[in-house]
Amino acid sequence: MVLWVFGYGSLIWKAGFRYEERLVGFINGYSRVFYQGSTDHRGTPDYPGRTVTLEPSHGEVCWGVAYKVSGEEDEQIALSYLEVREKQYDTKVYLDFFTDPNTTTPAVSGVMVYIGSPNKKLNPNYLGPASLEEIAEQIINAEGPSGPNRDYIFQLENALLEIGCEDKHVMDLANAVRKTLSEMKMDS
Ligand code: SIN
């Protein structure tokens, strides 16, 4: 048995489980968006942070990494770990994963992907869209058991650049966070 897991957020820079192979590539039809509220990792119930989720988006691709986990024991360990870590993501989907933009043949079929859906009943932490400035301010002020929310976005920006992906939403937001932080520094 083999399990493939696609990471498009913190899973890119921190797997947290044993894997046999890591491939850089993309899934079709989704955009990465900072619309998921986090009260367990990058914020608290009183002050939720923001992490990424995926939004269906026709014609778009989302770059990330796919991890191959082999063997029943490693698979069980990885799944149990992920079910806790990703517990605020209410939906799991199994998608085609591509490594080559010039082919329509997937490198792997059925990669598991965690998504925080916009359904507030299933996903009470969902925050949804807001202006860049609002999201940046929320990120600056949030911190949770996994660390400051601002570290999450800067680590994501770096991890994406390391795999050769310039994600406009992430970079615009990271720039907005940096700008607000430097303004705050000048004011103090
Ligand atoms: C992911 O990395 O694939 C899910 C979102 C996150 O944990 O940041």
What is the secondary structure topology, with strand pairs?
Elements lengths: L1 E6 L2 H4 L7 E18 L10 E22 L1 H14 L5 E7 L10 E8 L16 H10 L1 E2 L2 E2 H14 L5 H20 L1
Antiparallel strand pairs: 1-3, 2-3, 4-5, 6-7
Helix pairs in contact: 3-5, 4-5
The site of succinic acid (SIN) has 9 residues, from α1 and β3.
Report on this structure.
- It contains 5 helices and 7 strands.
- It has helices at residues 10-13, 72-85, 132-141, 149-162, 168-187, and strands at 2-7, 21-38, 49-70, 91-97, 108-115, 143-144, 147-148.
- Strands 1-3-2 form a 3-stranded antiparallel beta sheet. A two-stranded antiparallel ribbon has the order 4-5. Strands 6-7 form a two-stranded antiparallel ribbon.
- A hairpin with a 2-residue loop joins strand 6 (143-144) and strand 7.
- Helix 3 crosses helix 5 (168-187) and helix 4 packs across helix 5.
- The protein starts with a strand and ends with a helix.
- The model has no long low-confidence stretch (mean pLDDT 97).
- Succinic acid (SIN) is lined by residues 7-11, 51-52, 86, 114.
Q: What proportion of the residues form beta strands (DSSP E)? A: 25-35%
Report the structural category. Answer: alpha+beta
**H/I helix tally:** 5
* Series of secondary-structure elements, N-terminal to C-terminal: EHEEHEEHEEHH
Structural domain count: 1
* Radius of gyration from CA coordinates: 17 Å
Describe the global form: globular
Please report the first level of CATH classification, the CATH class: Alpha Beta
Helix content: 25-40%
What is the spatial order of strands in the main beta sheet? 1-3-2
Q: Which topology does CATH recognise?
A: Hypothetical upf0131 protein ytfp
Gap from first CA to last CA: 57 Å
Bound molecules: succinic acid
**Count of distinct strands:** 7
The assigned CATH architecture is Roll
